[in-house]
Amino acid sequence: MIYIIIFLLTTFSTYIAQRTVSQKAAFYFFSVWAVLLPALLAGFRDSGVGTDTLIYVDHVWAKILSVSDWDDFVNAYNNKDFKDIEFLYLLLNWMVSQVSTDVHSIYFASNLVVMLFIYRAAYDNRKKCDMWLVMLLFLLLYYNASLNLVRQSIALSMSVYAYKYIEQEKWIKVVVWGYLILLAHNTGVFFVFLLLIYLIFRMRNRLVKRYLSVCFAIMVPLSLCMLDYVLLLSVSWGILPMKFLSYLGELNTTTFIKSVFIIYVLFLLYVLGAMRYLKNKKRRDGELEMYAYFKFVGILLFLGSLASHWAFRLSYYINYPFDCLFLPRVVKLVQRRCYSMYKISLVAILLLAFVLWYWTIVINNGNETIPYKSKILGI
């Protein structure tokens, strides 16, 4: 229930913020609450709410507290004292440790970074989609995962934010942000998938575009079949750390969640239906075609989680931006065409997202964030 309350308050705050965007005082007031509430919920949680708090978050924090100054921090990083933990996450820990020694501080700060990037992406896209829908879909589909996959969630939220530079074709910023995302998490290298798909659909020659899109879609499952070789080579060449050997291919049904797969397919079908419904709008046809292709590739990657955790994590770099940005954009296009159809599709999408959240998070305890425990809040 505490998650539901925070989700509703955050969504309401975001809605009011968008309605008052021209009134700076009101906009900033409600924006602060929209970002702060879920970050505070993450900060107040006990260790163990989210498995990775026990696996690395607490341990990294304890090591950071033993670092006396900046020079010691740099030396410790260069000497691999933190093993394979990425630089930006370590830097965040060090900065937070300068003002607090409480482990809850890093719980709060790491999630605050995630919420800031997601909210900023929602703000940047406010003319293309409703900010509140972006936030609510993130909360229902990925917030609980951010309490567990802490480092990767930072990289993913940065990817959602940085996608605007791909659309604006500001290539220097794309390269810079791609590097920063990689510094946040090793899997951030797959931010390049967003760029490749965009470039394919940017092509004017429809024959070449179709050929490349088919080739890319075929390469995805083929690369998953060669997963072991790719990982072994990447580790042996020093591209990836040794820990990724644990992702070597094996039958792994625990990471393939049927309910998630079904919802992903339904989201894809919704976009395909919207393409047919808006087929007389040529610009929108191309836009919707790209969104549908994103989800199709995301589904293929998610299917790869039957073979390895690697594909499961990789699929997030496609599914995250689709669910948090592209899907709300499609809903907005439908709203502009037919308000009654918009209301029906909006209710259906939110119902599916809520059912998925309840089934995976509450009932099956996905990401191990249920029950929510907090000594600070007395829960």
TrEMBL record:
Keywords in alphabetical order: Membrane, Transmembrane, Transmembrane helix
InterPro entries, sorted: EpsG-like
Keyword Transmembrane helix: yes
Membrane-spanning segments: 25-44, 103-119, 131-154, 174-199, 211-240, 260-278, 290-311, 341-359
Keyword Transmembrane helix: yes
The protein's name in its UniProt record: EpsG family protein
Natural source organism: Phocaeicola sartorii
